[in-house]
Write a structure and sequence with these properties.
Blueprint lengths: L1 H37 L2 H8 L3 H4 L9 H10 L72 H21 L28
Length: 195
């Protein structure tokens, strides 16, 4: 008798779990239908771009000369230009190691396919392209002064500020104010009482 009750209770629990899963599935389908009715482009975009990450993922590190030639061709480079990142386990695979040149160092008058990015169609991007983009600090032009001059200027200003703070610590600035003066000392002018 006790085993039958346990079996029935376990069947009720699994039935309840299945019902909850089905209810969640139906709610999800209804929600998806509401979203796609308002903006069907969401569905089309998700279907159209479903495999972009695997398509552009770099292959494994090229070990033979033939693999190097295929990788160079894949990225639109000659075999002389193609140099992969070292195989140190960071996951760059066969992606080419491009020179660390900021975008602002490129010729601004060249007729690029994408002039706002200073980039042509099918140009490989740098692996750290967000670091070398034009909205980041770049070292395209030589410095106006030597680094020694910059450091001496910085340390001189900071030392001067610290010295002024240290020497003038005993001479506090304050607003010079006298005590409030009233006519007829000791006489109450306002009592704030009801008459």
């Amino acid at each position: 008798m006790g085993g039958t009750v346990k079996l029935l209770c376990s069947q009720k629990n699994t039935t309840k779990k299945h019902l909850l899963k089905m209810a969640a599935l139906i709610k999800g389908i209804k929600f998806g239908a509401q979203i796609t009715n308002r903006n069907p482009a969401i569905l089309y975009t998700s279907v159209r771009n479903h495999g972009w990450n695997k398509d552009y993922k770099p292959s494994k590190f090229p070990e033979t000369e033939k693999e190097r030639e295929l990788a160079a061709k894949k990225y639109g480079l000659t075999t002389a230009e193609y140099q992969p990142y070292p195989d140190d386990g960071l996951g760059y695979g066969d992606y080419p190691k491009l020179p660390d040149v900021p975008v602002e160092a490129r010729d601004p008058y060249y007729p690029y396919d994408f002039p706002e990015l200073k980039r042509n169609l099918h140009d490989p991007l740098h692996a750290e392209t967000d670091f070398w983009a034009e909205d980041r600090f770049g070292s395209a032009e030589p410095l106006r002064y030597s680094m020694k001059t910059y450091w001496l200027s910085f340390l001189g200003v900071m030392t001067g500020c610290f010295a002024l703070y240290y020497w003038l610590e005993n001479y506090k600035m304050f607003r010079p104010v006298l005590a409030k003066q009233y006519p007829y000392e000791g006489k109450a002018h306002y009592t704030f009482e009801k008459k």
